């Protein structure tokens, strides 16, 4: 679940290592460990002449160079977009991407594959330890790239923004600085009906009475609590009553079904700020503490959470997106599912003040603010550095869907 909070702009450009801030080596190692049983007997070689036994996986086709001919197939129509076939050579930077980083995300998609890709997942798994060149050769053989356009066929740049998973300190019980509750869904919450607003929760005793006992943990900063809700999930290091600490994930579990309104846009409309990045907003709030409550109430939408344990493997991935699989830092995006179906591999190109991206990603999430044919939200990872990147990214976008032939 994703929402855009603010208009993001900046003139600084991070180094390439910072753009990959969340693509740690541990992700690849742990993901490989999770599938070692599948890969133990697999090799990248031409198929044997014998026929596979019933129920056995078919061998990979020979990975040979495929001519990049001019596409002759028709454009594909989606409910919210038009896909135009193109050559692989039309994808900027395709031969330079470290595609093995995206394979972790593709393996996750194969846990809940869309029907169009289900037959390819056994090959995707066996290519996990292949070289980027072998992976690219396989994609050229199996997939056709399509340029994603609006339904009217206009070729215009879309919009790329970014989101992340915040990490905060929390307490299991209120006390000291920890006075801001994070709630599980209250009893009787109906997903099809609007519930009370954020202001109602803060000011009406009868509403708080309905939430009594639904507190999961307590944060120290109400603005951090709003950021957690806007991003849709987060990690908290909870101090238990006995003083012990443990890291858990707070995963999206529902909302009050009130409309989302951007608090950053509200500040802009008030003429309060010109820098609508998170650093700019927090600096303004620090100077105007008397306006914090109005800032919070400008967004009536409230998100409720459920607590999930974090295993060592879980820590290397993000929360589950709308596809139902864990997000991979730097390789998962949120899209409008009317434009691009979940589980689709996508070639993403974006150049702006925050990052230059030419990479393979997987469409695995969505959000109420992610609407339109050429629109994506880039999952940056977790923690402060990912938050800094996500808080400033707002730049042009081009997308190519990679679809089975």
From TrEMBL:
It is an enzyme of class 4 (lyase). Transmembrane segments: none annotated. Residues 167-306 form the Lytic transglycosylase MltA domain. It comes from the Bacteria. It catalyses: Exolytic cleavage of the (1->4)-beta-glycosidic linkage between N-acetylmuramic acid (MurNAc) and N-acetylglucosamine (GlcNAc) residues in peptidoglycan, from either the reducing or the non-reducing ends of the peptidoglycan chains, with concomitant formation of a 1,6-anhydrobond in the MurNAc residue. SUPFAM superfamilies: Barwin-like endoglucanases. InterPro entries: 3D_dom, MltA, MltA_B, RlpA-like_sf. This is peptidoglycan lytic exotransglycosylase. It comes from Ottowia pentelensis.
């Amino acid at each position: 679940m994703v929402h855009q909070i603010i208009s993001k702009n900046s003139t600084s450009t991070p180094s390439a290592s910072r753009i990959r801030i969340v693509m740690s080596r541990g992700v690849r190692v742990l993901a490989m460990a999770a599938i070692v049983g599948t890969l133990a007997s697999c090799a990248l070689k031409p198929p044997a002449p014998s026929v596979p036994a019933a129920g056995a996986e078919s061998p990979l086709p020979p990975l040979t160079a495929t001519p990049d001919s001019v596409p002759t197939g028709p454009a594909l129509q989606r409910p919210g977009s038009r896909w135009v076939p193109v050559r692989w050579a039309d994808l900027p930077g395709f031969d330079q991407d470290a595609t093995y980083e995206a394979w972790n995300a593709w393996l996750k998609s194969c846990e809940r594959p869309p029907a169009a890709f289900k037959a390819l997942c056994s090959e995707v798994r066996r290519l996990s330890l292949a070289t980027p060149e072998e992976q690219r050769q396989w994609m050229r053989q199996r997939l056709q790239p399509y340029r994603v356009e609006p339904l009217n066929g206009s070729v215009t740049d879309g919009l790329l923004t970014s989101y992340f998973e915040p990490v905060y300190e929390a307490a299991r019980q209120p006390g000291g600085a920890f006075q801001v509750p994070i709630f599980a869904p209250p009893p009787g919450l109906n997903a099809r009906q609007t519930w009370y607003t954020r202001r109602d929760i803060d000011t009406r005793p009868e509403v708080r009475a309905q939430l009594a006992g639904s507190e999961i943990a307590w944060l120290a900063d109400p603005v951090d609590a709003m950021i957690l809700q806007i991003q849709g999930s987060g990690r908290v290091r909870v101090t238990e009553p006995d003083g012990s600490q443990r890291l858990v994930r707070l995963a999206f579990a529902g909302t009050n079904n009130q409309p989302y309104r951007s608090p950053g846009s509200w500040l802009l409309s008030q003429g309060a700020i010109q820098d609508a990045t998170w650093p700019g907003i927090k600096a303004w709030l620090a100077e105007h503490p008397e306006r914090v409550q109005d800032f919070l109430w400008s967004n009536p939408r409230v998100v409720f959470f459920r607590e999930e344990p974090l295993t060592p493997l879980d820590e290397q991935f993000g929360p589950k997106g709308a596809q139902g699989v864990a997000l991979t830092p730097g390789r998962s995006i949120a899209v409008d599912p009317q434009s691009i179906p979940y589980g689709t591999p996508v070639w993403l190109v974006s150049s702006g003040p925050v990052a230059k991206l030419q990479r393979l990603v997987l469409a695995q999430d969505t959000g109420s603010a992610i609407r339109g044919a050429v629109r994506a939200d880039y999952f940056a990872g977790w923690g402060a550095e990912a938050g800094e990147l996500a808080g400033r990214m707002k730049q042009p976008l081009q997308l190519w869907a990679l679809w089975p032939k």
